[in-house]
Design a protein that fits this description.
This protein is an all-alpha fold. It has 17 helices and no strands.
């Protein structure tokens, strides 16, 4: 038997649903009110994303909760995200971790990866790198690129697992081949430094380029360095400046410093000390010590 509170909620929601809801969202509502967990999840997703209804995080949480309490893993994962980000509820990392865990234990790869991050960061749970690596592994083995990249990082740094550069490269490669920019950048670094693979500057540049073209600031900066040094590509200061600029405009301090050096020395651009100072200043404001020294020299 439904409680009066449930009846009141449904009546109010149904009344509002008559106006401003898409036919698809309305269909979800009808099924959701009958207790269908998939419909409850879909309606929650509609409210979260403002699809077919006016965006309303509180209603999203209400419907995700109904589906999550019935054991739907996707809803549990999304509800965890709401608690982690304070969307529709007061931010609560512990509750977020609890819901992620429920979904992760059912095999939901996204939840497994996010739970791994929770253990790595110590948010909602006590920091535990071994558990982080365990959850990353479960998600990585299901093919989730983000988990594969994170697991690669664990192997590269010996966090939660014994350091193993070869395994790091294997996992970075799996994620990179799926197009994940962070993994492409990490894999480029491995090739550039001969960690887990034979050193190969050309292959490094290839991977840096893939990541840089997706807007990965670290890769853009390192690619700029590759062009400036002529490692893996023909030396080209103009191309170096182009890549430094892309990363610098995203606020990446190392690229801002490198761009300042380019302007100060006239490498790839017309020499311009004023522009050099502007870029050094941006980098120095983020704590870059080289930029601070450059400013002392120029002022």
């Amino acid at each position: 038997m439904k409680s009066p509170k449930d009846k009141m909620f449904e009546s109010q929601d149904n009344g509002a649903a008559g106006q401003g809801m898409s036919s698809e969202a309305l269909e979800y509502l009808k099924k959701a009110q009958q207790g269908d967990p998939e419909a409850q999840f879909n309606l929650g997703w509609c409210y979260e994303n403002g699809k077919g209804v006016k965006q309303d995080y509180q209603k999203a949480v209400e419907w995700y909760t109904k589906a999550a309490e019935q054991g739907l893993a996707r809803a549990q994962c999304n509800l965890g995200w709401c608690y982690a980000n304070g969307k529709g509820v007061k931010q609560d990392w512990q509750k977020a971790a609890e819901w992620y865990a429920k979904a992760a234990e059912q095999g939901n790869a996204d939840a497994q990866c996010i739970l791994g991050v929770s253990y790595a960061d110590g948010k909602g749970v006590k920091q535990d790198w071994q558990k982080a690596a365990e959850w990353y592994t479960k998600a990585a083995e299901q093919g989730l690129a983000a988990a594969q990249c994170n697991l690669g990082w664990c192997y590269a740094n010996g966090q939660g697992v014994k350091q193993d550069w070869q395994k790091a490269v294997e996992w970075f490669t799996k994620a990179a081949e799926q197009g994940l920019a962070a993994a492409q950048c990490n894999l480029g670094w491995c090739y550039a430094n001969g960690q887990g693979v034979k050193q190969d500057y050309q292959r490094a540049v290839e991977w840096y380029t893939k990541a840089a073209e997706q807007g990965e600031a670290v890769a853009q900066c390192i690619l700029g360095v590759s062009y400036a040094d002529g490692k893996g590509v023909k030396q080209d200061y103009q191309r170096a400046v182009e890549w430094y600029t892309k990363a610098a405009e995203q606020g990446f301090a190392a690229a801002q410093y490198n761009l300042g050096v380019s302007y100060e020395n006239g490498n790839g651009v017309k020499q311009d000390c004023q522009n050099a100072v502007e870029w050094y200043t941006k980098a120095a404001q983020q704590g870059d010590e080289y930029a601070k020294e450059a400013l002392k020299r120029l002022r």
